[in-house]
Amino acid sequence: MYMLDAGFTILRRQLQRSSLGSRRVIVGGPAKRLFDIVAASLIIICIVPLIVFVSLAMKLLDPGPVIYPHTRIGHCGRRFKCLKFRSMVVGADEVLKALLASDPEIRDIWERTQKLPNDPRITPWGRFLRHSSLDELPQLINVLRGDMSLVGPRPIVPSEMARYGDKLGLYLSARPGLTGLWQISGRSDCSYDRRIELDAEYVRYWRFSTDLIILLRTVGAVIARKGVY
After folding, report:
1. pLDDT digit of tens for each residue in the chain (229 aa)?
2. Domain boundaries in the chain?
3. H-type alpha helices, the chain
4. Residue-wise over 67-86: b if at least 16 C-beta within 10 A, else e?
5. What residues have CB less than 8 Å from 24, skipping those under 6 apart?
6. CB 204: neighbour CB atoms within 10 A?
7. Measured on CA atoms in the order 18, 139, 223, 226, is the torsion positive or negative?
């Protein structure tokens, strides 16, 4: 763990000194950031009743914290708390550790995909939130804070950084997205390597028009619920 953190720190410093890792050359620049602020603000205003309903329903159906903050990696390697409506049991991290320690097959699936089909940690109400993508609504706050963008690479946890290899610099040059190419390309049906390729492709060929297309296609992907589990 110490070596991983040390390597992460060195990499972040190198990126901050380079043009790729500089905040001045963040993908999309000020125009993309302005669009994020305006669009996220309007969406939040429109869905306040939905947010209140989901929060109250969670308190009634699944007592415990409403919001689950999870550490993710953002632009230039900065760590931030990615917000979601809690869809798992309280103590889900401990449940996962025990599950991976007791079942080699499940551990193999997790190491390859960072996902578990029929994940036993997910509550019945949480499964509904995930299938409808309502669990991700609190990330609009992350967008307003500047942690995330409406469209961008899939937000990753620190332990995933090593798997990005020479594409990590591309990932770190953008804010992670509430949606992106991965979300409209099958989501959990995609292999992990394919997710990385999609993140890199998004950064390499970014256009504002691409963001608009992804946002429109996200609506269809949410309705179809393809690749959600």
Report:
1. 444 454 455 455 544 444 344 444 689 999 999 999 999 999 999 999 999 999 999 989 888 899 999 999 999 999 999 999 999 998 888 888 898 888 888 888 887 777 887 888 999 999 999 989 999 999 999 999 999 999 999 999 999 999 999 999 999 999 999 999 988 887 767 888 999 999 999 999 999 999 999 999 998 888 877 656 5
2. 26-87+122-224
3. 2-17, 29-61, 92-102, 104-113, 124-131, 139-145, 168-172, 192-204, 208-224
4. ebeeebbbbbbeebebbbbb
5. none
6. 11
7. positive
User: What is the spatial distance between Cα 211 and Cα 198, in angstroms, rounded to a whole number?
Assistant: 14
Reported pTM: 0.83
Picking from 115, 204, 198, 211, the residue whose alpha carbon sits closest to that of residue 164 is 198
State how far the alpha carbon of 19 is from the alpha carbons of 13, 41, 108, 181, in Å.
12, 31, 37, 24
Q: Which two tokens stand for residue 31?
A: 């125009």
Tokens of 199: 């993140």
Tokens, residue 48: 């306040």
